[in-house]
Amino acid sequence: MEKIIVRGGKRLSGTVKVEGAKNAVLPVLAATLLASDGKSVIRDVPTLSDVYTINQVLRSLNAEVEFKNNTVVVDASRELEIEAPFEYVRKMRASVLVMGSLLARNGRSRVALPGGCAIGSRPIDQHLKGFEAMGATVKVGNGFIEAEALDGLHGAKIYLDFPSVGATENIMMAAVLAKGITTLENAAKEPEIVDLANFLNKMGAKVRGAGTGTIRIEGVNLLFGVEHSIIPDRVEAGTFMVAAAITGGNVLVKGAVPEHLSSVIAKMEEMGVIIEEEEEGLRVIGPDKMKAVDIKTMPHPGFPTDMQSQMMALLLRAQGTSMITETVFENRFMHVEEFRRMNADIKIDGRSVIMNGPSGLQGAEVAATDLRAAAALILTGLVADGVTRVTELKHLDRGYVGFHEKLAALGADIERVKEADEIFASEKFVSDMNA
Ligand SMILES: CC(=O)N[C@H]1[C@@H](OP(=O)(O)OP(=O)(O)OC[C@H]2O[C@@H](n3ccc(=O)[nH]c3=O)[C@H](O)[C@@H]2O)O[C@H](CO)[C@@H](O)[C@@H]1O
Ligand SMILES: C=C(OP(=O)(O)O)C(=O)O
Q1: Structural domains of the chain, ranges and CATH numbers in brackets
Q2: Can you tell me the distance from the alpha carbon of 96 to that of 112, in angstroms, rounded to the nearest whole number?
Q3: Which residue, by CA, sits nearest to atom 6 of ligand 2?
């Protein structure tokens, strides 16, 4: 078993560079399946386990995929298969994003049902409602969702009950090759939706209004492979902003896009963190004392749920009582118990978490319960007294490239070890002491 070992107490300083966004690259790679002519060349792709998984999904669908030097080249010009197996969907829920493209290209798709997840039940009813409105028949059985529109999809008016990011993306991908016009109301407005729309439009699609609540898609006959660079990862950027603030450090987060991070910047500034826009990114300077604030997660441009656990780590250091209310996922507080193991004064009250700070944080062995919880526990370890060991790193590797290396380069006392290495290190320590 691998662990990250952090010894708290170092102020971080220097520059850290943000990777391409996980949540932008996954739908963009799913959309490469729409190109029946030519190759798609996707740049600034992060080397994340989720990217390897989606690449495997594309290969299992008969696309040719090459990934090197942060560039993925996809040739989807051959006849495609229709089935995304459970093996991949189980590892990564975003695998369901191939449904829209497969329906548009093949008139059929068969994707394993994703099942529950540590942060909530995460149904995909809004995706399916959109496909049905466009003329598909949807059947669920034997652990698979099958959608069929053998005469092709047609444009439709679709209203989402909630501005779901995945449903907006999947419906956009289905609609770009449909006959006629699709209007999507109450669409998600996240920057990753805009990135996907930009990619689709370069491929020859006609998508208007991405980034607003109404997206209008006029179907076209053919899409072709093009080049595209993925936007910077706003969640990774936000995570390093918290790393700088929590340690009272001074860090330039290179590549951070201020417009993508406005709610995070606003809340951190409310706490007393100094954030300056520089040409290359955002400089974050942590004060010695921070104020308590209340936060409610919301769809974009509200405060992102993917920054909730990292901000919780930061608020554990603030003076006074803070409250975080999670409105996007019903069960995204699994990390609270782990924070408590680190001596945090924190409790769950329904969909809110209440913290009394500053907590006298202590190092402990803790387990990551999801991707952002992994990052949040490591951030807490940066300021806890003594040693923190974080396990279940498979979650971290889904969304962060070289997280411990980047923190170490900023001055953190942090390493990633295999359990056997750790035993060896402590044996060596004892024998060195005895020598
Ligand atoms: C790969 C990717 O981009 N993942 C992001 C995406 O996930 P994802 O696309 O899965 O998130 P959604 O916006 O779809 O989900 C938000 C909420 O809507 C519910 N819902 C969603 C679809 C549906 O058909 N029915 C339904 O009830 C979900 O259970 C959840 O409670 O957006 C989330 C919300 O910003 C982020 O936390 C994830 O990091
Ligand atoms: C919840 C997340 O991702 P996913 O939707 O891929 O599980 C995340 O990135 O924090």
Answers
A1: 2-19+232-434 (3.65.10.10), 22-229 (3.65.10.10)
A2: 8
A3: 94
